[in-house]
Amino acid sequence: MESIGFAPHNHSNCIQDCIAAVDSHCRLNGLQFTPVRRRVLEILLQEHRAMGAYEILDRLREEGLGSQPPVAYRALDFLVKNGFAHKIERLNAFIACAHPGENHAASFLICRACDAVAETRREPSQGQLGQAAREAGFVIERAVVEAEGLCPKCQQEPPA
Description:
alpha+beta, Arc Repressor Mutant, subunit A, 6 helices, about 45% helix
């Protein structure tokens, strides 16, 4: 299982690669990757953390790209619907997908101290959940897994 979020990496390349992948996917699939949608994804990628819709809207407002909540929510809906971002239910926030345009199931490791989020790939039809579903004659179409704990950085910091 590969996780992204807590490991050091080339942040600039990460942003460029993701935007290029999303742009390509949109062109190939006839999706409109508008300037506002692109900017919302860039904001999520720059921060590399889960962000609330109003926090994103504040950034858009500062940049003159919109001041009404529907602007941010429409862009986020598009990004989530097309697999370019994920909603983190526990935080009521959004994070850029670490594997945009790829068909995958994601689970999230959420640090309870700093709210950092790492995305991991998993297959919901495997393991105990998959076995229980098969035994019940159930087909899993979507599963959201959010695990809470401490990231490597917060484990090393002395308690306040």
